[in-house]
Amino acid sequence: MSWHHCLCSLALSLLLTLVVPQSILAADSWQAGLAKVNITPTKSMWMAGYGARNKPSEGKLTDLWAKAIVLQDASGHRALAITLDLVGIDRILSQSICQRIEKEHRLKRDQVALFCSHTHSGPVVSKNLRPMHEYLLPADQKELIAEYAQKLEDQLVELAGAAVKDIQPAKLSWASGKATFAVNRRTNKEAEVPQLRADGKILGPSDHDAPVLAVHNEQGELRGLLFGYACHATVLSGYDWCGDWPGYAQLELEQRHPGCLALFWAGCGADQNPLPRRTVALAEDYGRQMADAVDATLKQAGTPLTGSLKTTYRELAAPLGTLPTKEDLQTAADGKDKYQAARAKMLLADMAAGKALRSDYPYPVAVWQLGPDVQWVILGGEVVIDYALRLKSDLRGTKTWVAGYANDVMAYIPSRRVLIEGGYEGGGSMVYYGLPTIWAPEIEESIVKEVLQQAKTP
Ligand SMILES: [Zn+2]
């Protein structure tokens, strides 16, 4: 660019500053593109989320969707969020999808994030929860799983292209609502929750914030609602495809606002359940409660998104604890616990193929700055609520959005507190995901440090 152009544009921006309020200019400079694709399996296949299921899917309560939103700031910098009505995604599939999106749609790794709703009524996704599915399912299911993963990858790459193609001027605004159906499942007994709720005695910690990004077109019509909440999608545990409560929330919002796409991302709800649960009526009811929370934010003025977009992504070496010996694994492989045995067989097979046990894991952390206000922290794995509470307190409160279940769902991610307390989220769950041992106590500090570094990058 020549000095002449620079001076001209400087003069122009000075002139515009004088005649147009800066907030309107900046708000007008954002653009957005939206798209969706149906990812409901077309064949009956194994469902993911509960080890106790003993047969493939039988029917469908709701379709499962992948949805995409591309945000673009005035300089043309873009970020693509893909939300998935799926339990999780593994590193290999996630990398493959992101590499193809980079090649075909020129969005680099830091500009793409894949968010899973963690519905427990969706299909097995590729190598996610690998020991359970690789060692405990009938052979014909493995073919269906591979087939579904390949189709999903193609669909998501195409979806990214459709969202990019849809990019158009938009008015973006954000607000934060509240919903209260998430209950800390470590500190409240499930059977007692109705009474505890009635008595106002539900124990935390929980995070009931529901951040919302609203997308309007230039005519003021609502085109998109992106919202998050920290709670497991585990109301249902049957044999019918279903988006669980997040699926019903998205359906409800799309019915209330024709022409609008609703996109859900899961927060740090690893130790939070929707309670009570186990009926379709309850899943629908939590969906409505979530939709009400999102709609309530629309009635507020909302804060316009101004400024520019910044995207960062790094993988840190998240430390694991003491590794098992080969003899430990052999004992587990021969033991009675079928899940322990499956993991041990998988790790022994990996070792025999020359792959040493991991002593750390490449853990994905991204931070997207949406203008001067909103800071979207994007974490992998099933992250417990302590991370959301700590990061919001260290950073910007409700302006800091903390997503889990993004990019790679490799295990539960306990805080130091939960790790030391133990239990399912602290360590018991590791066996289903296939990592060789529990996390080291430094896990929380290493993740928080990486987030703060990215969040404070000017
Ligand atoms: Zn979970």
UniProtKB/TrEMBL annotation:
Its keywords, alphabetically, are: Signal
The protein in question is named Neutral/alkaline non-lysosomal ceramidase
Q: Which Pfam families match?
A: Ceramidase_alk
The signal sequence is 1-26
**Neutral/alkaline non-lysosomal ceramidase N-terminal domain mapped to chain residues:** 31-257
